[in-house]
Amino acid sequence: MLEKEDCQKTVLRLVQGYCDAHNKRLQVSESTDLLDDVGLTSLDVMELVEALEDEFDIALSINELAEVRTVEDLTLIALKAAQ
Amino acid sequence: MSIFDKFRAVAALYDQLTKDGVAPVGTPIERALSPTSGVIDGREVILAGTNNYLGLTYDPNCIEAGQKSLAESGTGTTGSRLANGSYTGHGALEHELAEAFGLRSAIVFTTGYQANLGIISTLVERGDAIVMDADSHASIYDGAKMSGADVHRFRHNDAADLAKRVKRLQSKANNLLIITEGIFSMLGDRAPIRDILEVKREFGAYLMIDEAHSFGILGPNGLGLAEQEGCLQEMDFVLGTFSKSLGSVGGYCVSNHAELEAVRHSMRAYMFTASSTPTSIATVRAALEVMRRRPELRERLKDNYEQVYASLEKLGLALGPEPGPVVAARFDDAGRALDAWRKLLSAGVYVNLVVPPATPGQYSLLRCSLSAAHSRGEIDQIIAGYAQII
After folding, report:
1. Considering chain B, what is the average pLDDT of its residues?
2. pLDDT of A2 higher than 80
3. What is the pLDDT of residues A27-72, one digit of tens each?
4. Which is nearest to B324 in space by CA: B220, B136, B211, B183?
5. Residues sharing a CB contact under 8 Å with residue B316, sequence separation 6 or more, in sequence order
6. Using the beta-carbon criterion (under 8 Å), do B168 and A58 form an inter-chain contact?
């Protein structure tokens, strides 16, 4: 079963990777806001979520994603989907 | 905090788009002159952004049928289909549609938007899952949201991505509904429907196709992409609209499932809205007959869109992936797209300007929709207009 710590690390790595790839100088943490701090567009979110889904072989719905603001929120829904 | 605060960004964008002349969004067409010409800002222009694919808005048979119905049946039904709004024409049109598609039954809706909203929001529920193309129309998104089912997107026109997602959901969802479109409204490209059908078969899902922009255009009888690809009978639900190729207003769903009648009596979006006016029904029935009798209209449309696509491609514009009745040119910068739209209008050509978030990506589009009624001269003028924006 997926542990919260592993899930956390993966989400942080993916979001940090996005920031680095888009030259956004930002140290990503659990409280980082994906929209306001990182500036993700809906297309970016889709790509990020797809990477996360592939990583854990899970399916995240739009309904769940609508509630996501922070890295921690994303970690929690990924964790829930994996259980 | 005001209830209107959330509209500030939209209001600012609208102000920016409209400050220097004719509004590119909600552009007032002061007078329509023919299926392909009208008056905008006091000048006669070619209409190349009206989805009037077969050019039937001024067809004499359709006008005559509409006038006769207006005189005989009045201006409206003043009620929903389940109350007092079912006239003989509504049922007759449903029968004619089912017969044309070779499917068991049909339901007619007042608009195409309402067809998607009603069917999708009613068919699936909490515990089910919808897997839909990411570039689906807003009415599909809205119907999915209203359904209570889990909603998932697959990458646009990517059947392998669809299969991956459906596989993950298979054991979790009670029912799986896959949704795609025949021709996509923004870029004019077509769904890989046979590949999607394979996914439906493999995982025992239901498959819905929205043929709004392909009905009247593709297939030996103009019934859409599923007919063209020879898999119409394997679609669970085929939806579409009367407001494009048929030049009227309304929507439909046809299906081989006997339960469609029970669905009809459960759809809130169908039960609690007024039915189509008798005039709309009469013009649609007449247009269906014209579509059946005049296959050459599809050929003419194809000639027109292939010529425009090839010419715009030669001009170096970034177009959608394949020729279709919608030829869309992409612009990374919304300001440049707006300038180009104004230049085209000055050249006497009206197309649609579409800006994010209405576009599939972060780009803007000049969306040209062709018609069988565009003359050779009008096609040349459209192409010449585009040459001026390069």
Report:
1. 96
2. no
3. 899 999 988 888 877 777 788 888 899 999 999 999 988 888 999 9
4. B183
5. B390
6. yes
Tokens coding B15: 């102000």
Q: How would you list the strands of the sheet with B43-47, edge to edge?
A: B31-34, B37-40, B43-47, B349-350
B22: left (phi over 0), alpha (psi -120 to 50) or beta: beta
Confirm if A81 and B173 have CB atoms less than 8 A apart.
no
B168 contacts in chain A (CB < 8 Å): 53, 57-59
pTM, entire model: 0.95
Q: Which residue has the tokens 């970034």?
A: B318
Give helix A42-56 / helix A71-82 axis angle, nearest 10°: 40
C-alpha to C-alpha distance for B229 and B270, rounded to whole angstroms: 30
Cβ atoms of B279 and B64 closer than 8 Å: no
B residues 141..170 contacting A (CB < 8 A) = 144-145, 150-153, 155, 165, 168-169
Contact assignment for B151 to A58 by CB distance below 8 Å: no
Most B-contacting residue of A61, A80, A83 (CB-CB within 10 A), to test interface: A61
pLDDT (0 to 100) of residue B37? 98
CB contact under 8 A, B151 and A46: no
Count interface pairs A-B at CB distance under 8 A: 32
Q: DSSP class of residue A7?
A: H
Which amino acid appears at position B379 of this protein? Answer: I
CA angle A27, A31, A35 (to 5 degrees): 80
What pLDDT score was predicted for residue A37?
A: 85
What is the ipTM score, two decimals?
Answer: 0.88
Q: Say what the pLDDT of residue B249 is.
A: 98
* Both structure tokens of B380: 């040349």
Confidence of residue B359 (pLDDT cuts 50, 70, 90): confident
On whether the CB atoms of residues B176 and B203 are closer than 8 A, the answer is: yes
- Percent of chain B that is helix, strand, coil (3-state, to 5): 40, 20, 40
**Model confidence at B111: pLDDT above 80:** yes
pLDDT (tens digit per residue) in B300-347: 999 999 999 999 999 999 999 999 999 999 999 999 999 999 999 999
- DSSP single-letter state for residue B6: G
The percent of residues in chain B predicted with pLDDT above 90, rounded, is: 93
- Measure the CA–CA gap between B31 and B67, rounded to whole angstroms: 20
Residues B151, A62: C-beta atoms closer than 8 Å: yes
Of A42, A57, A61, the CB nearest to B150: A61
